[in-house]
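Hi, here's the filled form for the chain we discussed.

Project: internal
Contact: R.S.
Residues: 263
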Amino acid sequence: MFNYFLHSIVLIFLGYSSIYPILFWTTPLKKIELGFYRFNLGKCCIIGSLAVSAYHFISTDLFTELVMWLWLFLLIIATAFYWNKNKIHNFVITLISALGIYSLLNILPNIFENDILLMASFSIIIGSLITAGVFFSMILGHWYLNVIALPISLLRKSIIILSISLIIRTIWDVYFLSVNQYVDAYGIVKNSWLFLFDFDGILLLVALFMGNIFPISINYFVWKTLQVQATQSATGLIYVSIISVLFGDIIFKYYLLQYGFPL
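And the returned structure, exactly as it came back:
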């Protein structure tokens, strides 16, 4: 698994920090304090810096690396510019995020073969949205301790987006495993579901549970908790979901890079 450590770091961190700011649309500035934006933008700058720095050591194309550095530079400039402003334009932040997503998709042809490139792009984007969404929900849940009378609808929207993303990935994973085959060590062609019960595929079975089924179940209880306005309890449940999602995403990236399974 450690053979693809830097590749996994780049895909997870770059996807996370690129997609995360788009979620600001669910929390308009007029409904939440400016500190929420400052904290999250600063966090994205740090994680994005780690992603770009890691990519430098595996880069094979100067153009893709320059695009990535340009995205990071614009993100840092926007964060610094809006730091003490009373108004932040989500449209500007989203444009920068779009450049980050482009830089992410731009490096994928250097990592994956053309036959799985489109599927790999989809799985990485939806996985990044899930990872960003669960952290966004957790931090937003904490913000209810800082801001009086913060609308509960904000956290509900975040959980809805996270749940939809998880359901989409689960449907995709079931579809991919159902219609694709793999060749085992003896040259025998088998249905991909059987791979989950091989020695090499047992971790993927764990990832499907930890990365999809378990967080969907947790989100159900989070939703029920929000119905009684218990934001602290809901945030505690989201903490559990974060551990599960991260564990699943790391394993998913390993199987994508090692075996070409775009899950």
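Let me know if anything looks off before we file it.
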